[in-house]
Amino acid sequence: MIARFRYRIPFARPLVTAAGTYTHREGLILRYGTAPPYRFAEAAPLPGFSTESLDQVLACPVHDVPPTLPSLRLAVDLLRWQLTPDPRPCEPVPVNALIGSMPVEAMVAAAASAVEAGYGTLKFKLGPDPDAELEALARVRRAFPDIHLRADANRAFTRAEATLLLDRLAPLRLAYLEEPVRTATELHDLAAGSPVPLAADEHVRTPEEADAWIRGGRIRHLVLKPACIGDMATLFGILQQANAAGVRCTITTLLESGVGRRLTARLVSRYVDLHWAHGLGTGTLFSDDLARHPDPIMNGHFHLADEVDGDLDLDRLEPL
User: CA 31 to CA 104: how far, in whole Å?
Assistant: First the structure.
């Protein structure tokens, strides 16, 4: 038996997307079972990013989910997956620390705190103040020469601006820069001569887009959100295709609640490269959550409990 619940949890700060500004995250929780231990999964399209809407997800019966609703297809698939016994322990998943755009001293201090907390990979947001952000990156690189650095521009720059930015970033030895320009065509063209590896994120919202980037050969990093890809077989197919082509994949959340984050971490622990940090530490974006306690991230790794449902506040769920 699958029961359906709706949830609504607040962001610590408003989320700004192409579709608008949001103060809360909403989604659908699926629960399998008539008595504990239950199995849970989540379908929560992200406004301004996902190709589906929450209204579409809520209106769809779970026994017949079309490919046009990838988050719901994945949620149903993950319920089935949890019912298959697996005696292997879940290995801790390395995650990157996220450093937002702030004054230089604040960014440097945040980076130093993350390194002290055990993070081996730092991801900086770029765009609002490039000069300050690059100064902070340079100072962090000098202070921590062996740390892995990433940056995410969220399509903030024109082609000309991005070209200048890449020249300034080149000495800092970034693992990659995500989405510096506004269109997929610009990203593809910019990658041809870029002194910094580029990654696609906002332009990988479907399996077809992932396939196109892998076949294109210029982008060597993909940021994949499983809830945008759909079922597990499709996700695994993309991961295998990327690996064969020498394209590295970083798995990130779709800013789901603790249910989705912990299931995504479990998926990564079982099937994805654990020598590479993934983008799973997004629980800090919320001021409240369905999970009673913060995500168990220690020493830069997401540590997984035996069961996903043991920490959920079920009173927060609205039955449908």
Answer: 45
Whether 200 contacts 187, CB under 8 Å: yes
CA distance linking residue 237 with residue 88, whole number of Å = 22
Residue ranges and CATH numbers for the domains of the chain are 2-88 (3.30.390.10), 93-313 (3.20.20.120)
Query: CA 159 to CA 139: how far, in whole Å?
Result: 26
Widest CA span in the chain: 59
Beta bridge partners of 177: 151, 198
Residues 6+ apart with CB under 8 A from 256: 25, 27, 42, 44, 227, 264
Using a 10 angstrom Cβ sphere, with 0-12 exposed, 13-18 middle and 19 or more buried, the burial of residue 147 is middle
Strand 97-99 with 93-94, pairing: unpaired
Tell me the per-residue pLDDT of 24-67, one tens digit each, with 9 for 90 and over: 999 999 999 988 888 999 999 999 889 999 999 999 999 999 99
Eight-state DSSP code of residue 71: H
Nearest 5°: phi and psi at 239? -60, -40
Please tell me the distance from the alpha carbon of residue 277 to that of residue 148, in angstroms, as a whole number.
9
Q: How far is CA 216 from CA 152, 204, 206, 211, 259, in A?
A: 21, 13, 15, 8, 35
CA trace torsion 224, 225, 229, 233 (10° rounding)? 80
Structure tokens at 87: 């005696």
Tens of pLDDT, residues 59-113? 999 999 999 999 999 999 999 999 987 778 889 999 999 998 889 999 999 999 9
- Note the pTM of the prediction, 2 decimals: 0.94
**Position of tokens 């295998």?**
240
